[in-house]
Amino acid sequence: MKRLIALMLLALFSMGSLSACNTVAGAGKDVQKAGEAVEGAAKDCSDGKC
Fold first, then answer.
1. Rounded Cα–Cα distance for residues 31 and 20 (Å)
2. What residue intervals traverse the membrane (predicted)?
3. What is the dihedral of CA 13, 19, 23, 24, to 10 degrees?
């Protein structure tokens, strides 16, 4: 019984860790896209005609 509970806790912890990695990776991609948009706007405005 203890072994079953330990395996269930391990499975829950593993699932939580994996989903957290996906969330952080998704957030990183969102931040990267926002940075690219800011960079593009900065290049467009570099000639002073914003």
1. 16
2. none
3. 50
